[in-house]
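This part of the workshop introduces the protein records we will be handling. The question running through the whole workshop is how a given chain folds. To make this concrete, we reproduce a full record directly below:
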Amino acid sequence: MYPLLISISSFFSNLFLKLMDISSRDEISISFKKRLEKKLDIDIKRGYTSVGPHKDDLGIYIDDKDIRVFGSQGQQRTAALSLKLSEIEIIKGEVGEYPILLLDDVMSELDINSQNFLIKSLRNVQTFVTITEIPEPMLPLVREGNIFKISKGNIIKEKEALF
């Protein structure tokens, strides 16, 4: 899986360079700095930065249909999680270790098979997951983690890790 992620990352990096008509990473830095400087006055007036990666938009399509428009919430969540799983693998490749992963209420729109796949995919990743309840079929899969319950502002340890 790792070589595939590297080739995907390399593909998108090269595609970005071609689309921006830029030949090197140094040119990206220079181009970005120029764009920031050009927008500085208006950005100060508005109170936010109008250029940068936070303004990028990524479209995901299934059978040529925009998932944001035609996908179910489960499909949208699965697509977002797939990107997140790819991202943590890329980070692992770059820095040599997995990042800490925070997932908020990811299980609610996933079927049990997708929940199982997600948990198995995160076996080597320190992950903090918030969910409203743990489905019974999922309990055996979380045997390696601690489970905490928050009730009326109190944190209660419900299960100790079994490793």
